[in-house]
Give the backbone structure.
Amino acid sequence: MAQHIVPRKIYFAVFTALIVLTATTTAISFLDLGPWNTVVALGIAFVKATLVVLFFMHVKYSPRLTQVTIAGGLFWLAIMIALTLSDFMTRGWLPILK
Amino acid sequence: MADAIAPATPADPGHATEPGVQHQFDTMEQQREASSFGMWVFLVTEILFFGGLFTVYTVYRHQYPRAFAEASRHLDIALGTFNTAVLIVSSLTMALAVWSAAVGRRKAIVVFLLLTMALGGVFLGVKAVEYTHKFHDHLVPGPSFHFPGPNPGNAELFFSLYFTMTGLHAAHMIIGIGILTVLVFKTRKGRYTPEYHNPIEVSGLYWHFVDIVWIFLFPLLYLIGRHIH
């Protein structure tokens, strides 16, 4: 696999998308969507992060080993968050233990 | 990478076959992939490092949603949005610096690196203004902390997380600006070519990672909870 030079057009397109998403997430925070405020804000953050990782950080064009390593890191992050929250968010479910 | 793992058999074992290739690598491409991979392994440890803080934030926000919402409203959403845009522009200029290195435009590399550093400086300047306001408003955790609402102790927890997370992020920015300073000098000395510019490439990965951390800090600290009463 030779060195992949990403066309500048893609960088400018990703940049435009990131700026539009930033303006969108700030604008939406002024609306009262109840619990959906959190979902939308985090959803937009995930989309922005994915754009940066795939294009600015060239992961779309990186060797499979790099891609699997990143996925592994995110999987471990998910384990840390999920297992921690499975403790804190279920405390009090069994009143007898309170 | 598959072809990079299978060892090539150089005509003269122990010596690189291409100029600029360190002796432990067979080809320039293998060397380039190894350096990017090494940076990614470091960044995975950084994901888990910041991930721990995000986990703590999630646990306490779950426990004290109202106090966190009250405290969050004391952050300046306009400055936060401005700084997010500044970091995104700096990621674009960093990507263009790497692009310039890949096509061998040395002057453009220096210009884009300096622009990236300047934008990083703007970000830190705005952050300093925000911190100053917090000190002035007695919102810095410690003996002088004073919160004009219910549950000041829980709000103090929010500000502890705010200063820890944005402070560590700012420390990463300062380190990044230091790294880019070295790159500017080395670029001016002509150390980088389209074939060999791994330091610029991996420093770009680091800079973009720091941008991503802010992409998550911004909504979690500034935006979420504006409507929880």
Summary: The mean pLDDT of chain A is 92. The two ends of chain A are 59 Å apart (CA to CA).
